[in-house]
């Protein structure tokens, strides 16, 4: 806002191209890579984990640069971390634990 | 720079109240979508074959196009804010217009997707894949409503910028920008969840 971000336009473009590339990587990882089952974890759960991990990187880039979190008040950053962290925990945990429950 | 950016009236938080409220609203939105994602994951793992068969009916290519459109729209939104803060009204109009156009493009692709599903009798209440398509229409439907909800104030801001002195509240545009990026963020999760994760 009032604080000058210096010249932020190159960062915007960098984030944009990173997001495009990571989107293609998500598609490639889902369509081309088929993980084998590891112990009690089926391969497709690993596939989902990889997709989720790429999504986390994308989301972080959007929040830090597009949503200006990098330049914001640290307290606001802290507020934002909590729900985002819980959301990701939900995604990762359900993904594994749910399968675990059915197998045991 | 301008009055909207003066934070002297926020002595404790040093965050504009509109912006802080938007973040709080987005946190509640995240919880709203968490419900969908949570139930989706649980039901998918117990009905894997049904969900897989449903997902195979979707066109991930159209969804990929939509992903690119939304990311582009996010970029132009960020650029619009950048230019409004520097009082470049002309560039603000161009980038705000492009952002709205991105929203329209997204909805048009979505329309073609939905009508194809309708044409093939792929919607809740049918005999096959009904649980998957309940999720599909709920999640993408709510997301599309968010897109429409964002485009209305964006169109208003663009319209106002043709008045004397351009659009006067960069703070408000930044707050709306947060919302628009959030819509993009949710799509980043919905896209792989519905279209991609079934190998």
For the termini of chain A, the CA-CA separation is 53 Å
Largest interface: which pair?
A-B, 50 and 53 residues
Main β-sheet of chain A: number of strands, strand sense, barrel status?
none
Task: Give the helices and strands of chain A as they follow along the chain.
Answer: HHH
Roughly how many Å apart are the termini of chain B? 51 Å
Helix content of chain A: over 70%
User: What best-fitting shape of chain A do the alpha-carbon axes yield?
Assistant: flat
Query: How much strand content do the residues of chain B show?
Result: under 5%
The top-level CATH class of chain B is Mainly Alpha
Shape of chain B: elongated
The low-pLDDT segments of chain A are: none
Q: Major sheet of chain B, described briefly?
A: none
| Helix segment tally of chain A | 3
Describe this structure in a few short sentences.
The complex is a heterodimer of chains A (104) and B (199). Chain A has 104 residues and is an all-alpha fold. Chain A has three helices and no strands.
Features:
heterodimer, A: 104 residues, mainly alpha, 3 helices, 0% strand, B: 199 residues, Four Helix Bundle (Hemerythrin (Met), subunit A), 77% helix
Give a written overview of the molecule.
The complex is a heterodimer of chains A (104) and B (199). Chain A contains 3 helices and no strands. With 104 residues, chain A is mainly alpha-helical. Chain A has one domain. The longest helix of chain A has 30 residues. Chain A is flat and about 50 Å long. Chain B has 199 residues and is mainly alpha-helical. The model of chain B has no long low-confidence stretch (mean pLDDT 89). Chain B has a single domain, classed as Cytochrome c oxidase, subunit III, four-helix bundle (Four Helix Bundle (Hemerythrin (Met), subunit A)), CATH 1.20.120.80. In chain B, helix 1 packs antiparallel against helix 5, helix 2 packs across helix 5 and helix 3 packs antiparallel against helix 6. The termini of chain B are far apart. The interface between A and B is large, with 50 and 53 residues.
